[in-house]
Specification:
Elements (H helix, E strand, L loop, with lengths): L12 H8 L46 H4 L11 H15 L5 H10 L6 H9 L5 H18 L5 H13 L3 H12 L7 H13 L3 H9 L10 H13 L3 H10 L8 H14 L2 H13 L6 H13 L3 H13 L6 H13 L3 H13 L6 H13 L3 H14 L5 H9 L7 H10 L6 H14 L2 H13 L6 H13 L3 H13 L6 H20 L5 H22 L1
Helix pairs in contact: 3-5, 4-6, 5-6, 5-7, 6-7, 7-8, 7-9, 9-10, 9-11, 10-11, 11-12, 11-13, 12-13, 13-14, 13-15, 14-15, 15-16, 15-17, 16-17, 17-18, 17-19, 18-19, 19-20, 19-21, 21-22, 21-23, 23-24, 23-25, 25-26, 26-27
């Protein structure tokens, strides 16, 4: 090692009044859709699919594509900056010593004689987003040892470890750290409050989310409309739309509703998939003093398409052009995607053509909608024509584009060509791209390429994450390797990851199956034969696990 490294239940009227002591001016609502790009400067996530198919990790993507994934036989030299090299070595150290005591890990880190910076510490933390224990040990060590060298972690580092702890439901440690941050100036910022709001809302801790919002005042932050809208968005993002609408009405004197606040609530009902509630709130907006803008139209159009009311959505879309309210590219994308979903691809291509004629330039999402559905019907000539058009216009494909291409592959030989084109266009891999490639190689039983992809994924700080283990566990089960699958499950849970419900059901079934097989073994064979069989099975399992 170098000496220096560089579902919450909807709140009833009574429960809400008891908890928050507000007046409830509206009727209780039931269930609801968001068009992610319709509210400017904000990010929304559909709660219909909490495991977003392509959830990129912002700000932490690798610098250059490594050829080992595309073709293990032709590996390019990967140029890293010093922080990447140091972070990789620290990641290896933490992995090797994962079973050591905290003091043992800290002594090993001390021997590394690291030159600590925020960039390096952030790099290490982001490599452990799905494994809070080593991340927390490293953060605490860096905070203490940095004092001797003059290093003190900044607000970005603190916010990152807060987010990691929150994702892994370590609220006790999260609260302790926040209390320490509150005692020092400059560590708590808007991002800090955003992390808490999202983590509390995700775990259905509504009262705590509202409480952290009002704690802003104690720490010298204003209770302004933007902060209130952030609270509303966090609640809507995690299905607590009724509570968000309740707060919007009950706090109207303190935070007068504007069209942006109304759009957030409308968007929330749309994400939950309730056209009835979306229509009701749309009518509330029309009757209010807030004039609907193009984002309002876009959200409602999205709700109509998600509910299967495509004809109504197309009429409203056409009416926008006629009224001079020019739809933006996000609204056009919504219509194109809905038409493709209904297999009305010629009409989608017509809307695509009209966009160019009306000076509404298509973006990557526009092309992705068309490519996704064209791949499904195997019209690859048109797909690659669109890809060429994207490259000519400078609208370069993103990771999602290549995922659609990868999903349409039929054999391992097709993968390198797609990945080489991805590299040529400067498109960076993310964890979802890696996980898809892992699944493909698992399905094709390509253990060598599977192992090289896993190694590269870990080397670049992209995992393994919960999805990675899910792919491996289910893939091994499908191939009859139950003991190996259970071994990976044990490894997954030891890192503090929470398995998906379907994985838990599968693991329970595997345990029952193993128990039944052991009980069914004939007793007459004797303990010696049984022991020999067990050792043989164990050797086979170890050999296969080492291959992965």
């Amino acid at each position: 090692m170098q000496s220096r490294f560089q579902a919450l239940r909807l709140y009833s009227r009574v429960n809400t009044q008891l908890k928050f002591k507000f007046d409830f001016p509206t009727q209780p609502r039931t269930k609801y859709s968001i068009l992610p790009n319709l509210i400017p400067n904000q990010q929304f996530h559909s709660t219909q699919n909490t495991k977003s198919e392509f959830n990129s990790r912002e700000g932490f993507e690798r610098d250059e594509f490594i050829g080992s994934v595309a073709d293990p036989g032709e590996r390019d030299v990967f140029r890293r900056d010093p922080n990447d090299e140091a972070a990789l070595e620290i990641q290896k150290l933490l992995k090797i010593r994962r079973d050591s005591s905290v003091s043992g890990i800290e002594r090993a880190l001390q021997l590394c004689k690291l030159s600590l910076t925020d960039d390096l510490v952030l790099n290490v933390l982001k490599r452990h987003r799905s494994n809070w224990k080593p991340a927390y040990v490293f953060f605490n060590w860096a905070s203490r040892c940095g004092i001797e060298s003059g290093y003190s972690p900044g607000c970005g580092v603190h916010n990152e470890i807060l987010d990691i702890l929150g994702r892994m439901r370590r609220f006790h440690e999260m609260t302790q750290l926040f209390d320490e941050m509150s005692k020092r100036k400059g560590l708590v910022n808007e991002r800090t409050f955003g992390v808490f709001l999202n983590r509390y809302a995700a775990e259905h801790k509504i009262e705590e989310a509202v409480g952290i919002f009002y704690k802003r005042r104690e720490l010298g932050f204003e209770l302004d409309l933007i902060a209130f809208q952030t609270l509303l968005m966090s609640l809507c993002r995690y299905k607590h739309v009724e509570m968000a609408e309740f707060l919007l009405h009950s706090k109207k004197n303190e935070f007068p509703p504007d069209i942006r606040s109304m759009n957030i609530i409308l968007n929330g009902w749309c994400v939950l998939g309730s056209l009835r509630e979306a229509k009701r709130f749309w009518n509330d907006i029309v009757r209010s003093k807030c004039k609907p803008d193009k984002f309002t139209y876009g959200i409602f159009i999205n709700s109509l398409t998600k509910a299967g009311k495509l004809s109504t959505a197309v009429k409203l879309f056409q009416a926008m052009w006629e009224k001079g309210c020019k739809p933006d590219v996000a609204i056009c994308n919504c219509i194109i995607d809905a038409l493709c979903f209904k297999k009305r691809i010629p009409e989608a291509l017509e809307v695509f053509r009209e966009m160019n004629e009306r000076d509404c330039q298509p973006d990557v999402a526009t092309y992705n909608s068309l490519i996704k559905h064209l791949c499904k019907i195997q019209r690859f000539k048109k797909v690659y024509k669109l890809l060429d058009e994207m490259e000519q216009k400078g609208c370069l494909p993103n990771a999602r584009t290549y995922v659609y291409l990868l999903k349409s592959t039929k054999s391992p030989e097709e993968v390198p060509g797609i990945l080489q084109r991805m590299e040529r266009n400067g498109c960076r891999m993310n964890s979802d791209s890696y996980n898809l490639i892992l699944k493909l190689y698992m399905d094709w039983d390509c253990e060598e390429k599977l192992k090289s992809t896993l190694d590269e994924m870990e080397r670049n700080g992209m995992g393994p994450d919960q999805r990675t283990y899910t792919v491996i566990i289910h893939g091994l089960y499908d191939k009859g390797r139950i003991e190996d699958a259970l071994s990976y499950f044990k490894q997954m849970t030891s890192m503090g990851m929470v398995p998906e419900p379907r994985t838990m059901l599968l693991v329970n079934a595997m345990n029952i199956k193993l128990k039944e097989e052991r009980e069914a073994e004939p007793e007459g064979k004797g303990l010696g034969n049984n022991a020999d069989s067990t050792r043989s099975s164990s050797r086979r399992g170890k050999k296969k696990r080492s291959a992965l």
